[in-house]
Design brief:
With about 80 residues, the protein is of the alpha+beta class. It contains 2 helices and 5 strands; from the N terminus they run βαββαββ. GO terms for molecular function: copper chaperone activity; metal ion binding.
Length: about 80
C-alpha cells in the first residue's frame, strides 16, 4: 500500500505488542482524511504514512490518541521530537 508518489513520508516507531495495538493505529489512520496511503507493521512496530496535504503534527496526534507509546518519528527523513 506504500506510495512513493506522495509529497511527504512520515515514519513512526510505536510500541505495539499485539494485533489489537496495530489495529488501533490502523483504525485512526484509516479515518484520517488526506492520506495517500499508509502501512502499519506489527512485527517491526512501525507505521509509515504517505500524504500530500496532512501535516506531521496532525498524524502524530491521531496516533497518540490510541494511547500507544511513540518511541521515535521522522518526517521526510528528518528526525522529529515526539
Amino acid at each position: 500500500m506504500a506510495s512513493t508518489e506522495a509529497a511527504h513520508h512520515y515514519h513512526f516507531d510505536i510500541t505495539m505488542t499485539c494485533g489489537g495495538c496495530s489495529g488501533a493505529v490502523d483504525r485512526v489512520l484509516k479515518k484520517t482524511e488526506g492520506l495517500s496511503s499508509y502501512t502499519v507493521n506489527l512485527e517491526a512496530q512501525t507505521a509509515d504514512v504517505y500524504t500530500d496535504s496532512v501535516a506531521f503534527d496532525t498524524v502524530l496526534e491521531k496516533i497518540k490518541k490510541t494511547g500507544k507509546t511513540i518511541k521515535g518519528a521522522e518526517a521526510d527523513g528528518k528526525g522529529m521530537g515526539v
